[in-house]
Structures are given as structure tokens and as C-alpha cells.
């Protein structure tokens, strides 16, 4: 795996130890919403089914949809369309859960266990909480061209830096994410609720999921329903893949070639007065031969212009 927990653990520990919550009022308000009795009870039920601590579920839910229980935990997409019919997610991860005619808790199980496999984590210290949160959103902020602490975790804290995925796959280095990060909210939850505690090692035997809380392993798909496409509050941190058009259909490439040829023609016209000299004739002949050979190789496919353009457009 590209980003293994073992390679990131020290970084998470360092950031957590020196992090200061800057937007205290906003983070505290969100923490209070998560620990409210009605919300906490639902997060506790999800914890019993998945093994993911209730306060971690709450932080992810807050980040994805402002703790809206009518939106999927996966990415904050609505659970129902305008006609009230259940719909799957349309943003990353798309098409979840397989059967949208289910409860928020069932959908949370799909997001946390089926999609992200967070049930495999047993050591829920701050490092693993941070890793689970970043894995849930994506590791796109770690790209060499960005390389910033993910605002999904550290927004509203002293370690936040400019940069945000404004939508799935679209990064803007100038935008400062206004949302509060999951770790900032977690810090305020732990200050307000003594029930929110880190655990080390396997969970105790009495915390194993109960049969009543675990949704059915498989559910039949329902007929496709009309889907809505709202922008999620926290777009997935994934790299955008640029599509390179075929050479025959690329107006920009052929336009560039024609413009280049026009420039060469103008240069040759300017050199016309020197062609009569031996060295002028030799230079002109060399230019004409080079142009002819280059165009011949492009037309015959020996030089792949598309690959050259794709290579030049990649990050360093």
C-alpha cells in the first residue's frame, strides 16, 4: 500500500501533540452536536456494529454532511431524492450502498466496513483515528505537488495550511478550507465528554458487535431511482485524471503545428535575401529537410505527439 499506517504514524503523533485548535467556538459547537444524546446514541449503535469508536463516526459524519442523518456517511450525498425515493451516492464513492432502501446506520456500516475496512483497526489511539479519517477522505493531499496536512483532519487548527479539493479531483492551492477538521472536533469532544477515550489494543469482549446492530450481509438492489447531484461538503481528495485527446481530434495540437509552420515560413521569407549565398542556401535546405522529416514521422506515427504532451503536463 502506498501510504501504510506504519510510515505515517509518527507524523500523526507529532501533528496531534502540537496541534492547537484555532477556531474554538466552531469546533466546540460541532462537538456538542455530536455528543447530544440523540446523536450519540446512534453513533454508539454504529460503534457496536463496526468497532469504530462512536466519536470517530461522529467526526466523519460532521465533516461529510454537518451531521445530517438524511445524508449518507460515505460522502454527504442525500439518502432520498426530491420524491422521497432512496438513492445511491453519486459522488466518490459512487453507487453506495448497493441497496439504498436502508437506514442511516446500515449505510454507515457499508461506508466504514464494506468500503473502508475500518473494522480491522483495533488500536484506536490518536494516530489511528487520524489515519482512518485521512483514508476515509483520500490521500490526495500527499501528492508531491501539494504535500500539505489534510484539512479534512487539521482544518481550524494551528497546523492547517492553504489548499483544498474544492470538488472531487479538483485542487485549489489558494483556498483555505473553512470547515473544521475531524481532529479539531475530536479534541473538543474529548474535552467535553469523558466517555470519549482512546483505546489501545483489541477491544474488550463486551464491546463486540451485537447481532441486532449488524445489517444483513447482502441486500437485493432496488430499481434505479432518480438521483440528485449536490456538491459534498468534503470532496474526496483524489487526483484529477486529465484526458488527452487523440491527435486527429486535437485542435490545439494541430493549431500549434500550423502556427509554428507559419513562424518558420516568416523566418524563411526573412532569410530569402541570403539564400543566394552558399551558407544561406545550406541553412535553408537543412531547415526544409528537418521540417519534412519531422512531419513525416508524426504522420506515420513514429513520433507520438499525444505522449509528448501528456508527459509535459505531468507533475514534476
Describe this structure in words.
The protein is mainly α. It has 2 domains: 5-213, no CATH class; 247-313. 45% of the residues lie in helices and 2% in strands. It has a two-stranded antiparallel ribbon. Helix 1 crosses helix 6 (126-137). Residues 203-211, 216-231, 241-253 and 302-316 have low confidence and may be disordered.
Radius of gyration: 28 Å
The SSE string, one letter per element, is: HHHHHHHEEHHHH
Q: Stretches where pLDDT falls below 50 for ≥5 residues?
A: 203-211, 216-231, 241-253, 302-316
Assess the beta-strand content as a share of residues. Answer: under 5%
Percent range of helical residues: 40-55%
List the helices and strands and how they pair.
Blueprint: H1 5-18, H2 24-35, H3 37-50, H4 54-65, H5 104-115, H6 126-137, H7 151-154, E1 164-167, E2 170-172, H8 182-192, H9 251-270, H10 278-300, H11 305-313
Antiparallel strand pairs: 1-2
Helix pairs in contact: 1-6, 2-4, 2-8, 3-4, 3-5, 4-8
Structure at a glance:
The protein is mainly alpha-helical and 316 residues long.
For the structure shown, list the relevant keywords.
single chain, 316 residues, mainly alpha, two-stranded antiparallel ribbon, 11 helices, 2 strands, elongated, disordered C terminus
